[in-house]
Specification:
Length: about 525
């Protein structure tokens, strides 16, 4: 796993670098070259008006104008559009990758604060939005600002009185854009929870389609989806209106600004300060000014609308850095795997308002075979999660000590996760143990294309896949949540014999609903009536 960036430094907005400066100059290059073409156009007009240009000189100016115009068009495509777009794509993917890295490093108690829709929003919309925003602010906005300064310099070279005219146009343009821009940003912040709830409902429909149809609950799922959609749509409609207003008003005011600028140029020409060619060049420069102005307004608007994403990502980075709570439970005893003594709760609430799972003592020593039994919902899996460091240690009122091996144990969880691909893919980076594969009798699984669809794998095949994955790992401690679930009698017997043979070589903790391992177990624990006791 890549080393995580500190939450204080994660998702920084302003990242000055030589590379970003070069890209910003690339963004400005097309406008600067177009300004040069406008200047050449002015000299051509003045030459025609005066009639003093020789044909050869006029042809040379026309050729220069054509060459600079073509260079401006090429720079617009290659330097202004394509190179920043590549940087944008790279930044989007890098931000999403960072968010995934932080998600995997996040303590379980931090992870459980949000549902899947929240994390889909973080990894997709928020991360990609931040990636774009970062490039826009560090490259495009800087490049457009350089272009504006260059155009103001060209205007001053024609007549210094054009500078206040151009600046007035800039101020009016930004003023018209400001209110709808901030309105869109505020609405996006309010809309985010509704969007996450809608995404969560989409995920639920996709993942539970078979369950919905099998239970005749299509109407229930559709009603919930419609409620989430309507809530999201109400915010989306208002946001789109504000966004469209922000895009339309500046475009509507542009013709008025152009007329005002042209009137100022004509007045200067009448006063004898400017030639006709200078008026044409100034008109071209002011027209060119519209593009970086529009881009800056658009990019600033995008920044305002993406600020909620930035807050979301920084909160996400902070949660990834939170301590898990298991650091304080690290055991220094060489002859101890795990010791738990206290009361385990299923809820943060205590007393009558909370749900208590069990009270008791639990201990595992290296090389032991330990069996845990109890009814469904009694807290057996929560005990294994606690030993593996995959829960909130604050759920335990009492004391616990866990070895580092326990916190990195091989773990058969239920239900068994499946990824589309081959059997090798589903070993998640491990190599299959030949002996375990033989005992499980995998059939055609090694040659089959595996998917996570229920009709592709039977429950028994999923269980075999999970056992092969857990028992093939090299860790000295193995946690097994119902290892015999959905297995036939013969396979169950072979697996039990294999687990018994691991005694003294590896530590095995197994949740069982049968007594198949009792005779060989070093310790047997049972959860009955809210008590965890050793039999």
């Amino acid at each position: 796993m890549k080393r995580r960036t500190s939450a204080r430094k994660a998702y920084s907005l302003f990242r000055p670098s030589a590379r970003n400066l070069v890209l910003a100059l690339d963004v400005a290059s097309g406008t600067v070259l177009s300004a040069g073409a406008a200047y050449l156009m002015g000299t051509i007009v003045d030459g025609l008006a005066s009639g003093g240009l020789a044909p050869g000189e006029m042809a040379a100016r026309l050729a220069a104008f054509l060459g600079v115009s073509l260079a401006a068009a090429l720079a617009k495509f290659a330097l202004d559009d394509w190179l920043p777009l590549r940087a944008n794509l790279r930044a989007e993917v890098d931000a999403s990758d960072m968010a995934i890295d932080q998600l995997l490093a996040m303590p379980q108690r931090s992870f459980e604060r949000h549902d899947a829709g929240h994390y889909l929003n973080v990894v997709n919309s928020a991360a990609f939005g931040y990636g774009s925003m970062s490039v826009y602010l560090n490259v495009n906005v800087v490049g457009c600002s350089i272009a504006v300064v260059a155009l103001l310099g060209c205007a001053a070279a024609i007549d210094v009185l054009l500078v206040p005219v151009f600046l007035c146009g800039l101020i009016v343009y930004f003023a018209v854009n400001w209110v709808p821009m901030h309105s869109a940003g505020r609405l996006l912040m309010k809309m985010m929870p509704a969007r996450e709830a809608w995404q969560e409902e989409v995920r639920r429909l996709v993942e539970e389609k078979r369950v919905a149809i099998a239970g005749g609950a299509e109407g229930f799922y559709l009603r919930r989806f419609e409620e989430r959609t309507n809530a999201f749509r109400a915010f989306l409609r208002r946001h789109r209106l504000a966004d469209a207003t922000q895009a339309t008003l500046p475009a509507a005011v542009s013709p008025a600004l152009q007329v005002a600028a042209l009137a100022a140029c004509v007045a200067l020409m009448v006063a004898g300060s400017m030639t006709l060619g200078s008026v044409v060049a100034a008109w071209q420069l002011f027209s060119l000014l519209q593009s970086p102005m529009a881009d800056i307004c658009s990019l600033v608007s995008f920044y305002v609308s993406c600020r909620p994403n930035l807050v979301l990502l920084r909160d996400h980075a902070g949660e990834a850095e939170e301590p898990s709570g298991f650091e304080a439970l690290a055991a220094d005893e060489k002859d101890l795997v795990a010791r738990v003594d206290g009361t385990l709760w299923a809820t943060p609430e205590r007393g009558e308002e909370g749900k208590r799972l069990w009270t008791g003592e639990f201990e595992v020593r290296p090389g032991e075979l330990v069996v845990v039994r109890g009814a469904n919902g009694s807290g057996k899996s929560r005990l294994l999660d606690l030993v593996r460091g995959l829960s909130d240690p604050a759920d335990l009122d009492g004391a616990a000590a866990l070895s580092s091996d326990a916190l990195h144990a091989a773990y058969l969880t239920y239900p068994v996760p499946v990824v589309p691909g081959t059997l090798e893919d589903n070993l998640l980076g491990a190599a299959a143990d030949p002996e375990v594969a033989r005992l499980l009798d995998l059939g055609d699984l090694p040659e089959r294309a595996i998917t996570d669809q229920p009709l592709n794998l039977s429950l028994g095949e999923r269980q075999k896949l999970g056992l092969l994955r857990a028992l093939s790992r090299p860790e000295p401690i193995v946690l097994l949540d119902e290892p015999l679930a959905n297995l036939d009698v013969a396979t169950s017997a072979r697996i039990c014999a294999y687990l018994v043979g691991l005694r003294g070589r590896r530590t095995v903790v197994a949740i069982m609903h049968s007594d198949d391992l009792d005779a060989a177990a070093d310790r047997i624990y049972a959860i009955r009536n809210g008590r965890l006791t050793r039999l």
